[in-house]
Amino acid sequence: MLASEVEALLVSRAPEIQFRVQGEGRNFQIEAVANTFDGLSRVKRQQAVYKLIADEIAGGQLHAITITALTPAEQSARAGLGL
User: How far out from the chain centre does Cα 52 lie?
Assistant: First the structure.
């Protein structure tokens, strides 16, 4: 799969979340940004994103996935730090 295909898949399943996907083949890094992550633990946020692509992981189309799930405020703070 291409990063653009994974991103399109995620957006189609959760249009309220902003996604940025990098990687190729079956290995991807996903950054997800949404207000809905506010108040959730890091694990709960990652589980919410993972659930969107669970079928593709189970089917072998995706393999190694790294998920960073942030609120817009957290993303802005990270950007200010150059991350």
Answer: 9
